[in-house]
Amino acid sequence: MKCMGHLRHFSGHDPRPIRLNVSAPFHTSILQPAADTVKEMLDGMTLSLPPKITVISNVTAREFPNDQKEIKRLVEQQVVRRVKWYESVLYLSDKCGVNQWVGIGPGNVGRNLIGRELGMDKVWGLSTVSELDGVLEMLASNNLEKLS
Fold first, then answer.
1. pTM (2 d.p.)
2. How many Å apart are CA 90 and CA 78, to the nearest integer?
C-alpha cells in the first residue's frame, strides 16, 4: 500500500489494476511478429507529406513528424508499445488548445475518462448514428457549444 501512496502522490493518478476483456495482447512485446509485418508493409509505401490533418502518435503523445522514416517507425512501434492516451489528451488540451471533445463509440467510457480529467462540460459521448448526425450538423455550423 505504501507504493500505491507514492504513485498517487507523484503521478497524480489513482492507479488500479482492471482486468480487461480483450481479444489479443495489443501494445505488448508479444506482438513483435505483427510489428515486423507492419514494418514490411510500410517499407513498400510512400506517404503523402505533409499530412493533411494533425495526427497524434500513440507512442510519443505528440504530432507525427513530417518525416517518412520516422512516421513509419512510430506506426510500427505502436503495435508493441503502450498507448500514451492520457498524455495525448493532456497534450491536445494544454499545448494545442483543444477544449471540446466528442467520444464516439458504445457507452460512455471515453467520455467519462476525458471528462474526469478535463471537465464533463467539455465532452460529449455519442453511441448512435442519430446522435452522430446531430454532432455533424453542429460541427458543420461550427457551433459545438449548443450540444451541452
1. 0.69
2. 19
Sign for the pseudo-dihedral over CA of 100, 104, 106, 109: negative
DSSP string, 76-139: HHTTTSPP-HHHHHHHHHHTT----EEEESSSSHHHHHHHHHH-GGGEEEE-SHHHHHHHHHHH
Show pLDDT as tens, one digit a residue, over the chain (148 residues): 455 555 555 555 566 667 777 777 778 888 999 999 999 999 999 999 888 888 999 999 999 999 999 999 999 999 999 999 889 999 999 999 888 888 877 777 778 888 888 887 778 778 888 787 877 776 677 655 544 4
Report the C-alpha gap between 9 and 108 in whole angstroms: 28
Place of cell 514494418: 39
Q: Which residue has the cell 500514451?
A: 84
